[in-house]
Amino acid sequence: MSVNKPRGNTQRAKGEEGVRPGFHLSLDWDSIFSSPKSTLAWGIFFLMTGIILEVSFLSYIVTGLADQSVVDAFGQESIRDAGRQTRNFLGVVGATFSHIFVYRWFGVGALLLPIVPILAGWKIAFGKELLPLTRATKEVVFYILWVSALMGYIVLMSNTENTLSFVSGGIGYMINVWLFDWLKWGSILPIIFALFVFAVYFYDAKNLLDKWQTKPEKEEEPEIAVAGNPATIVTEEQGTDVESKPEPVKEIEYVSVVNDTYDDDVVPETEESKEEEEPVIQNNSHVLEVINKEEVSKLAVTPVITPFVATQVNGSNVDVELELEVADALTPKDAVEIPDDEDVNASILREFGQYDPMLDLPSYQFPTYNLLSDVIDNQHEKVTQEELESNKTKIVETLGSYGINISKIKATIGPTVTLYEIIPEAGVRISKIKNLEGDIALSLAALGIRIIAPMPGRGTIGIEVPNKNRETVFIRSVLMNERFQKSTYDLPIVLGKTISNEIHIADLAKMPHLLMAGATGQGKSVGLNVILASLIYKKHPAELKFVLVDPKKVELTLFNKLERHFLAKLPNADEAIITDTKKVIFTLNSLCIEMDSRYDLLKEAAVRNLKEYNAKFAQRRLNPEKGHRFLPYIVLVIDELADLMMTAGKEVETPIARLAQLARAVGIHLVVATQRPSVKVITGLIKANFPARLSFRVTSSIDSRTILDMGGAEQLVGQGDMLLAINSEVIRLQCPFIDTREIEDVCEFIGGQRGYDEAYALPEYEGDEGSESRSEVNTDDFDGLLPEAARLIVTHQQGSTSLIQRKMKLGYNRAGRIMDQLELIGVVGPFTGSKARDVMFHDLNGVDDHMRSMGISG
Ligand SMILES: Nc1ncnc2c1ncn2[C@@H]1O[C@H](COP(=O)(O)OP(=O)(O)OP(=O)(O)O)[C@@H](O)[C@H]1O
């Protein structure tokens, strides 16, 4: 727990010189407080402390004076003797504690003190709050002092200091002695005033009073209380407040992510708005004041938020009626039309705290690292001195034989390759070295030479030579890496180890999509699994959903177990992992609908991206009654694009391109892998929208150029050796290795936990039934020129009615009818306004086959 860290630091600061440093390093406060056993032990410790204090205090109240002499004599006689004499139920310890807390300090008010350790202990031990801890602690502190002061007044006024001073304790008595000098008997007034101020601020007494005043004549008054009961009374008793609600989250390691997701400055904003909105709801004169302050929009709080309250309190609509009355008194129209981005319902926020999606699955446990194999990589020396020397000599000799002299050479040993950086003598042209790439490779007799001339930002020329013994980078080591664990990215993914053995972590949310290519067996599937595992280890199921498309049918099936935690699927779909091309088309279109509806929500909330939207939702500034909901990130993973493009062409390309173009801001990100990085698969449209591209080894430099816009990927050495190109930067990385068994264990670990009732539901795609019934379309009514028009449209790749009109010399009406029929049979997309319709086929054979399958010929 982060709260404990300072303790470790303080210790270090104080006793650094005197204590061996190793001692401090071995104290892992995090694990002391976070392991289940120690949490239970600490919880019970606090519980016991609370109980001991309470028993001691109660006992002292009964036997206090008798024990006072024992406590006073403490230190002058043996503990044993003192123990025998004391009458406290808990002996000398009980008597001493009570003497200090009751007699010296707080009097009977001290009886409240043990509530704090008891609540804290319960929370630590059992992970649940009996009452909200923060709020209860504040109350306890206030009442201890207040009761002490009140008792002090009574004792002082009744002149019973000698017999009853323990009732008020020293503090309460002294307060009254001081007040008495000023106010005589009137010193009770500040004491009562303190209670009043506390009640106003802490229980929002003014709000309650206002509520009571605005509808005194209403018979429904008691009903409101009843309707509000389940939520209101519970919260009042429990005293839920903004700070206390998110506390359970802190107990899971997750807190850093939560903090990142929601900006810190959110809280003060909420606090302010709390204060300002309350008058608006209830009192006309306050409303006018607010208008003067140009905070008109806050009026919208009234009608918009109340239905939300109503739902929260068992669907009662009493509050709704009340609030509409107030709004009518002003300008109801204005009030309704004001956008709801100012809809901050302070009372809901105060009562329920910030919305925390993770509380849907409060007991969710993140997968542990021991599910991953802890093989320590080959301990033997990876690259020997001889290997380095011999490569160096060969490089120097080869270049020398072409008249290129080197002034300096430096080697960096990476997991898969060693980078030799050379500085040629002055006057040598870089292109000359680049041209000798093949010759150098030949003379080094090694596969996978890659020459980087010049190394960006280094002023050198790099030659990467594969190591004889390569290192496997195991997933466990990278996921346990501190940089990954502390990463604050929204969607952190580990991509691999760089040549200088650093872990390369990227934020998929910023990428914002990733295109992967690689010939068969070069590590694509392992790479995809690594990406999925990174996200699973960092994200709570409430924050992230996967849409998994696996046309190969075998690669992603293991993730099936995550269905009720991390997967999203179409309603009525049997399997969450999509293997069928037709279903892929539906899913992609459904994702487009999800994207559009998310955009609508963002627009209505007047925010620019998903993060801002969710933060606003968490602050309860968006009304679920209006369709607002917490939006998890969605990551669409397609394991084999080539397959889909070959079978469905435009039908797949168009939605993918649309998602890639637009979905970033609404938290939908794509990871698309393909074996064949040909231009037919990675079309210009797709490529243009995937700025981040990753290539494992490919078979030709043409493929490398298609995916990376540069050669080099054909020179990689396989088994996860890869090049990552983001914008114009290219990095060579070794992908971590994750085994099928490890994936299986992780998925089983998560799948075995309580999940959601079902997978995250994607919106229904209406084309669903439409396309199913395409084969049942009555083709008899179709225009005889339909096949010809279809070919014309496909040839020109332009879905326009005027094209049919011009080329086929038809009237507008007939051409229009034909266009509608083309849409019906799925050759063109729906009408999109002024733009031409999308053409769903890109070759004549495809469209002919399609028409034949529908019984249309000609
Ligand atoms: N990062 C890695 N580290 C070590 N070995 C790896 C790594 N990635 C892949 N391999 C090895 O390569 C083999 C093939 O990997 P993978 O199944 O990921 O290839 P692929 O590109 O998905 O092939 P295909 O397209 O045929 O499914 C793995 O079984 C593993 O032995």
Automatic annotation (TrEMBL):
Membrane topology term: Multi-pass membrane protein
Gene Ontology CC terms, in alphabetical order: plasma membrane
Chief place of localization: membrane
Alphabetically ordered keywords of this record: ATP-binding, Cell cycle, Cell division, Cell membrane, Chromosome partition, DNA-binding, Membrane, Nucleotide-binding, Transmembrane, Transmembrane helix
Localization per Swiss-Prot or TrEMBL: Cell membrane
Residues annotated as transmembrane: 40-62, 100-120, 140-158, 182-203
UniProt binding sites for ATP: G518, A519, T520, G521, Q522, G523, K524, S525
Source species, domain of life: Bacteria
UniProt keyword Protease present: no
InterPro entries: FtsK/SpoIIIE/SftA, FtsK_4TM, FtsK_alpha, FtsK_dom, Ftsk_gamma, P-loop_NTPase, WH-like_DNA-bd_sf, WH_DNA-bd_sf
Pfam families from the UniProt entry: FtsK_4TM, FtsK_alpha, FtsK_gamma, FtsK_SpoIIIE
Span of domain FtsK: 500-705
Gene3D superfamilies in alphabetical order: 3.30.980.40, P-loop containing nucleotide triphosphate hydrolases, Winged helix-like DNA-binding domain superfamily/Winged helix DNA-binding domain
Single GO molecular function: DNA binding
GO biological process: cell division; chromosome segregation
Family: Belongs to the FtsK/SpoIIIE/SftA family.
Protein's name according to its UniProt entry: DNA segregation ATPase FtsK/SpoIIIE, S-DNA-T family
Organism, scientific name: Dyadobacter koreensis
